[in-house]
From TrEMBL:
Sequence positions bearing N6-(pyridoxal phosphate)lysine: K209
Any one annotated GO CC term: cytoplasm
GO MF entry, a single one: pyridoxal phosphate binding
Family as reported in the entry's similarity comment: Belongs to the trans-sulfuration enzymes family.
Keywords: Pyridoxal phosphate, Transferase
Cofactor requirement: pyridoxal 5'-phosphate
Top-rank taxon: Bacteria
Pfam families listed in its UniProt record: Cys_Met_Meta_PP
Gene3D superfamilies, alphabetized: Aspartate Aminotransferase, domain 1 (3.90.1150.10), Type I PLP-dependent aspartate aminotransferase-like (Major domain) (3.40.640.10)
Record flagged with keyword Transferase: yes
Protein name (database record): O-acetyl-L-homoserine sulfhydrylase
GO biological process terms on file: cysteine biosynthetic process from serine; L-homocysteine biosynthetic process; transsulfuration
Protein's UniProt keywords contain Transferase: yes
Naturally occurring in which organism (per UniProt): Methylobacterium gregans
């Protein structure tokens, strides 16, 4: 073999995996077991003391999940990863390793709605405060930073689609204040954007979406970029201070550039418990094997459908950065040259009623609350996910009465266009 680095397509299939040592099984087996037998008492003691790597109990590590973790770390270009039960668990365990009661983090105001709820309400129970900044204005992040700020959080391609974040600019703010930049890379996947190359320190994923890609399992991933120096930094005690539960071990010193991933696993996952089922890890691994092929088709189809809709007489506007006239087109060319994602919104001239009629009339598109499936999906936020908000709140969240969100799947693009055209005319 030459010293050539494997390409993305090769890593998507092979990273982390090898034929099973005992059986020769070529596909990664589902290690559907709660526990693992120790070799002897000394082995058990060294595992519990973090002196040796090995499996104890599937809440903390599992061999199927470990293949998924190595694969996403390779695809993102990180040092290590942790698989967890959902995207929300990935966000929560990340913050748990960074934040103490009374701490604060600055988040972009354009995020997945569930993340906005999690940050605004549930995190209050832990004494964690969120400060919202304008996703399009890096200076607003800097202005929100206080001595208790422990992280900056954004999405690479932001929900509900159509927003490209200037990750490099946010990373410069983070570096000036010596705090980590956490990027939710769910909508882009590492096929479209690799946030570590633009200065991110930690990447989180909902693997439920494009990574798994088939709408069949909930899962989350946390990837350590290995870039942030936690050692000796008293602001991050989980990483820099002696841990009483591990005989005074300092995780950032013992584990160096994958200390963050270790902290998430041996403090967060161990104590809070949102472990990923190995069966879900297996399904997500299978999804990732075809990620490059699928993502390219997703974005190609999305551009065709968005172009068609932007010229349709029933459509007031389309928000898709792949369109040359879009306000995020220049950022899309810089950050997502292969395509600007496959989730976007459009506004209907007919308002609320037209939105309700469109979701009812579509045949191929499924009306549901998810994105990143092989199947094309549609939702009318004003009558579903955002219905409890006032009209002003809906509009501020990009969910005005006329807004419809599409997640473009892998069907024949002409069939999708035909379905949309018929439903818009009905
Ligand atoms: C879906 C989603 C989440 C939450 O992930 P779950 O797997 O549903 O818990 C977080 N961030 C983004 C961008 C998402 O789309």
């Amino acid at each position: 073999m030459s010293d050539r680095q494997p390409g993305f397509e090769t890593l998507a299939i092979h990273a982390g995996a090898a034929p099973d040592a005992t059986t020769g099984a070529r596909a990664t087996p589902i290690y559907q077991t709660a526990s693992f037998v120790f070799e002897d008492v000394d082995h058990a003691a060294s595992l519990f003391g973090l002196q040796a790597f090995g499996n104890i109990y599937s809440r903390i590590t599992n061999p199927t999940n470990a293949v998924l973790e190595e694969r996403i770390a390779a695809l993102e270009g990180g040092t290590a990863a942790v698989a967890v039960a959902s995207g929300h668990a990935a966000e929560f365990l990340t913050m748990h390793a960074l934040m103490q009661p009374g701490d604060q983090f600055v988040a972009a105001n354009k995020l997945y709605g569930g993340s906005i709820n999690q940050f605004n309400h549930s995190y209050k129970n832990f004494g964690w405060e969120v400060a919202w900044a304008d996703a399009d204005d890096p200076a607003s992040f800097e202005a929100a930073i206080t001595p208790r700020t422990k992280a900056i959080f954004c999405e690479s391609i932001a929900n509900p689609g159509g927003v490209i974040t200037d990750i490099r600019a946010l990373s410069e703010v983070a570096k000036r204040h010596n705090i980590p930049l956490v990027v939710d890379n769910t909508m882009a996947t590492p096929y479209l954007i690799r946030p570590f190359e633009h200065g991110a320190d930690i990447v989180v994923h909902s693997a439920t979406k494009f990574l798994g890609g088939h709408g069949n399992s909930i899962g989350g991933l946390i990837v350590d970029g290995g870039t942030f120096n936690w050692a000796g930094d008293a602001r991050y005690p989980m990483l820099s201070q002696p841990r009483p539960e591990y005989a005074g071990m300092v995780l950032s010193e013992t584990f160096g550039n994958f200390g963050f991933a270790i902290a998430v696993r041996v403090l967060g996952l161990r104590d809070l418990g949102p472990a990923l089922s190995p069966f879900n890890a297996f399904l997500i691994l299978n999804g990732i094997e075809t990620l490059p092929l699928r993502m390219q088709r997703h974005v190609d189809n999305a551009l065709k459908v968005a172009t068609f809709l932007s010229r349709h007489e029933a459509v007031a506007w389309v928000s898709y950065p792949g369109l040359p006239e879009d306000r995020y087109h220049a950022l899309a060319q810089r950050y997502t040259p292969k395509g600007a994602g496959a989730v976007f919104t459009l506004g209907l001239k007919g308002g609320y009623e037209a939105g309700v009629k469109l979701v009812s009339n579509l045949q191929l598109f499924s009306h549901l609350a998810n994105i990143g499936d092989t199947r094309s999906l549609v939702i009318h936020p004003a009558s579903t996910t955002h219905r409890q908000l006032t009209d002003a709140q809906k509009s501020a969240a990009g969910a005005g009465p006329e807004v419809v969100r599409l997640s473009i799947g892998l069907e024949d693009a002409d069939d999708l266009i035909e379905d949309l055209d018929a439903a818009l005319r009905a």
